[in-house]
Amino acid sequence: MKLEVAGVGKDYLIPVIDSVSFAAEAGDFVCLLGPNGCGKTTLLRIVGGIEPATRGRVTLDGHAVIADQPQARKVGVVFQEDRLLPWMTLRDNVGLVLTPLGLAPAERAATADRYLKLAGLGGFEDYYPGRVSGGMRQRAAIARALAIEPDLLLMDEPFGALDAQNRRIMQTEVRRIWRQTGRTIVFVTHSIEEAVAIGTTLVMLSARPSRVRELIRNDGRVERAKLVDDLNTMIMEEVERQQGAGPGA
Amino acid sequence: MRLWLTRLHLPTLFVAAVIVAGWWLLSLRYGAYVLPSPAAVVVGLRDIVTSGEIWKHAGASLARIAVGFGAAVVAALLLGLIAFLSPLARGVVHDFLAVLNSTSVFVWIVISIIWFGLSNWAPIFTTFMITLPVVASNIVEGVASVDRRLLEMGDVYRLSGRRKFTAIVVPSTLPYLVAGMKVGFGLALKVSVVAEIFGVTSGIGYVMNYSREILATQMVFVWALVMIAVMTVTDKLLFDTVSRRLTRWRG
């Protein structure tokens, strides 16, 4: 599955995203980085076909992604919040998104159980979301996104609400799941350490209206500590530029 | 049974005993017509239970409520559905419910007598008009409060409109519906009994008014107790059980 983002821009009242282009090959783990308010989440929503772009186009294997229209490729999304239905068990939450795929109820339950287990939630299938921890809920949301066997998996700061310890556990888990399933992932984060730890391709966005400031292959050729330092310097420069420019510029 | 006993805790029982004692003393002073004694009320209650009159009149009142209130719930569900499908309609529905909400019971009683004469339909119509805005505004509020983020999740995973409705909208709205029905039912009982004063020959309202006319004041008290009992039983047994079952998933 090849993802191509070509000259994508978005204006609300002011231009938020100027023009962003990057590509991801099958099995890539892309991390989107950038200062707060530079439109990372918006970009992810455009890639997922949740929101229309003002300019440019997104294609998956050459098929255009158009907001609010049925897509030729399956896209799984993990939001900042878990967005589980509180009145359904974890199994039913995962099973629900399998209904459009035309599986029989027994198959749905079996698939849901398989992916919950993959996400480390074996034994919790019959729990309601309110009865498990925040980390487990987010893992269930990841299991849900994986269960549809998506061509592309989008994750929007999925660990933002977790404490440092759970965050590290989840990073390891996601990386393990990514290796096992070989999905193409686009992952939004504001943590440089997180991006360097898990991403294969790092896309650093500039201050608003954003462009791609730097595109880095994280293939181990550059030492991690140095990479983190460089990216930190870049992000500080962008934050300063954004503050200097003011909200209306 | 045990639960009920523990709920009727001692301080409440003590205050109740003081009130009954005060009531008894006052009844000695004012006589049976103005304030019948507690004993007379107990005897009256026993009489209507043994004669079966209690079931006849409570049943008649409940049957009218079932029709009027039941129709109000159905109409409220339809209004909720309309409000869900169109944000424009939601505003209109909301405004009309506000108008209905501020209309007095007496307006509907008088109008229903003009329209339906002295028949069963007068209390039924009054109950319908009074409970409709209560139940409907709860449902409309419930529909409006459905989490947009969950609906967006449904869009992302391409759930059908029907699936989104049954899996997301209905469960989000159910607690509001039950809360509306709980308040609405209490109101239905109070209102239909008032409407029964006119033109019908059965029901708690009718028999209370009749008791007053034949100067059997203790029976007015007896039927008031019956009303309280019906209200408490439906509230505790029906609505509390239903809302507990609906929110089983709460952690």
Task: Give a structural overview.
The complex is a heterodimer of chains A (249) and B (251). In chain A, 45% of the residues are buried. A 10-stranded mixed β-sheet of chain A has the order 5-4-1-2-10-9-3-8-7-6, with helices on both faces. Chain A is built from 7 helices and 10 strands. Chain A is 36% helix and 24% strand. Chain A has 249 residues and is of the alpha/beta class. Chain A has 2 domains: 166 residues, P-loop containing nucleotide triphosphate hydrolases (Rossmann fold), CATH 3.40.50; 67 residues. The radius of gyration of chain A is 18 Å and the shape is globular. In chain B, helix 7 packs antiparallel against helix 9 and helix 10 runs antiparallel to helix 11. With 251 residues, chain B is an all-alpha fold. Helices cover 85% and strands 0% of the residues of chain B. Chain B has a single domain, classed as Orthogonal Bundle (MetI-like fold). Chain B has 11 helices and no strands. Chain B is globular. In chain B, 32% of the residues are buried. Chains A and B meet through strand 6 of A and helix 8 and helix 9 of B.
